[in-house]
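Reviewers of the previous submission asked for a worked example of the structure-prediction workflow described in the proposal, so we include one complete record here. The input consisted solely of the amino acid sequence. No template or homolog information was supplied to the procedure at any stage.
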Amino acid sequence: MALVLTEEQRLLQDTAKDFLANNAPVAALRKLRDEKDPLGYAPDLWQKMVEMGWTSIILPESYGGLEFGFQGLGVVLEESGRTLAASPLFASAVVGASAILLGGNEEQKQTLLPSVASGELTLALALEESPHHRPTQISTTATAQGDSFVLNGSKCFVLDGHSADQLIVVARSSGGERDSSGLTLLLVERDAHGVSCQRTILMDSRNAADIQFDNVTVPAANVIGQVDQGWEVLQPVLDRGRVAIAAEMMGVALEAFERTTAYLKEREQFGQLIGSFQALQHRQAHIQSEIELCRSVLLQALSTVDDAPRELPLLASLAKTKLNELVKLVTNEAVQMHGGIGVTDDLDIGFFLKRARVAMQIFGDTGYHKDRYATLCGY
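From that input alone, the workflow returned the following structure tokens.
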């Protein structure tokens, strides 16, 4: 597995860097927050991302994709983390598209994936039901009724769920509340009868939704994968999402680190640049070493998605754990080294800390993945 980027991947990264710096700086997120934008992202920016081909990166050419691989997607997400660009790219083109790609039948793939690639369709995964990530703890029910299913239950923390065209709902069709068996994935129109959606604005000014399902009728043709065997699809989808969000967190950490380093070179205290203080130099040097370690872990995890999917569960949990720890360390230190102004709204550095805290919770926090990694290793 290559732990360096190819020339094509570097070119993609440079293109993404320039595009996002010009079209989606942190100031754009601040504007969305201040104006209380009802969508939570700029439609014109999203359309430009689609035109750049970012929604097609991981999809096969036969379904309208570029088939550029997950490592290519990783560099785009890393750059989006640097500018905190708000868009449905992660929820739709990564998580949603992966669910269809890995679990959908041929008709679903031919119908849905080209629409995701063209930006005509956005998807969101409706999974969580509690404040913490518990992917098998599902009480939302899918009851068979003729050639349909009837959905009842509620979901929380549905990323970009308020704006998605369709929801991929994880429901229990059999088994106990915590069993991995008995789960079924169903494709549901967000505006279907019986679906009520309430947007929640997260601390990082991004979007999630609380969604209620009240006797929602879903055709059996909308099942993704096999009835009662949704976990077989859900697990690799979540692992892909974990690696993808880890790539974004790398961008958040890098930008926070670089902004802090620049600040240390210009801020004076006691008649000296604070960057000359050895204690602060040691702290930044420690962060630099952690960044390089995490970069290797992330590159291996990204390449594993395409090259060695059987190893993905272990690498996904490793990457999510290490990037959770890194982004927490970097953003904490960034605010500390900026001093009191670091916690005010005058500087952008606080936006990075807030995004870090939310991203750390997506698809499992540090404790969840340390436990999972140990379990996978046989402990």
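The chain has a mean pLDDT of 95. We consider this example representative of the routine output the project will generate in years two and three.
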